[in-house]
Amino acid sequence: MKITFLIHDIYGIGGTNRTTLNLAAAFADRHEVTIVSVRRHRTRPRFAVDPRLTVVPLVDVRKDATESDLADPLLHEPSRAFPTAEKRYHQYSRLTDVRVEEYLRACDADVLIGTRPGINVYLARFAPPGTLRIAQEHLTHDSHSPKLRARLARHYRRVDAVVTTTEADATVYRAKMRLPGVRILAIPNAVPEPGLPPADGTAKVVAAAGRLARGKRFDLLIEAFADIAARHPDWTLRIYGTGPERDRLQQLIDDRELGGRAALMGVASPIEAEFAKASIVASASDAESFGMTLVEAMRCGVPVVSTDCPLGPAEIIHDGVDGRLVPMGDRKALAAALLDLIADEPGRRRMGRAARRAAHRFDPARVAQVYEDLFAELATTRASRNRERATSRWRVRARRAVRSLRGPRR
């Protein structure tokens, strides 16, 4: 089977890139796999790419590359196909539209998998007949603007499946976006075994990782750690990542006189090597579409203390067994949960072992098998799903015709 992923920019860093590479490598054990990167902004991807995978860039925006597309006039014309309400719209152009359409029209893949809303629209519009079209959602339904949701509702009717990362989000899609003939289901992200000895629970380190953005609430984590610092002066907080909140977070660390105790460590890839040096990993986010760092920590045998935010953590962590869930935005509850694990070394070791066992459900091979079962199901039900689509279209047209005959209501 030929499987092709279409992704924004595989050369960059981010959770979607990591999980796409993980899943693609698992597929490569049995299938021919291609990753089509709409953009290319650097020579080599930041993450390691399995040599069995084929990477195809479509639009080259490297400033120093001889084959760069920066001089193409279409690059400077706005896209006509990519949704304007998509947050990446400013990075798409008429050149992007043309290159993606040309590639997809000629594509001989059995399965095409899109990895963000605007790219899923491309799949719906340009994928050849007979190809299975899978629209992955790495964000959430409610995180999209009403304008984008309306656009997606029109185009997602043409795909074969919408795959979310959590059952909670799949439930929202089923309730709020009527898609006749389209399978809506949740499949978690694939997270491989790190290949490192698990943490032993003795290091006096709390770690955290993610984009330093407001929604990740690293400020709340720093405030909670300030409550811990006076009682446990031998414990430290390490935050990995970069982003627009870096200066503000550093100022908060300075204001709380946590210099030497709390540190912004910059980007670390792979992050598992750093998580294995910690005894607790913390997440204070206001929202998570999945929670890759939670699973990555668990795979290292490290218990996680996370806010019970929508939508991912509650489907990853079994509270009190392999981690802790605390109310969102509650600094005292976050500090209390961290203090409980800091004070209980046997307990956090036990919880870390449970976390490592629980994380096996995210093995790439298991996740790939779920997708393969989905492909088989979609191929078998193609005719019945097409009839369901046609029936729905007929009913909509019939209702419109009836309303037209009745005339305007008084």
From TrEMBL:
Entry keyword set: Glycosyltransferase, Transferase
Domain Glycosyltransferase subfamily 4-like N-terminal: residue ranges: 13-191
Keyword Glycosyltransferase: yes
Stretches assigned to the Glycosyl transferase family domain: 200-357
GO MF terms, alphabetically ordered: glycosyltransferase activity
Gene3D superfamilies: Glycogen Phosphorylase B
The keyword tRNA-binding belongs to this UniProt entry's keyword annotation: no
InterPro entries: Glyco_trans_1, Glyco_trans_4-like_N
Protein name per UniProt: D-inositol 3-phosphate glycosyltransferase
Provenance organism: Streptomyces sp. R39
Species lineage: Bacteria, Bacillati, Actinomycetota, Actinomycetes, Kitasatosporales
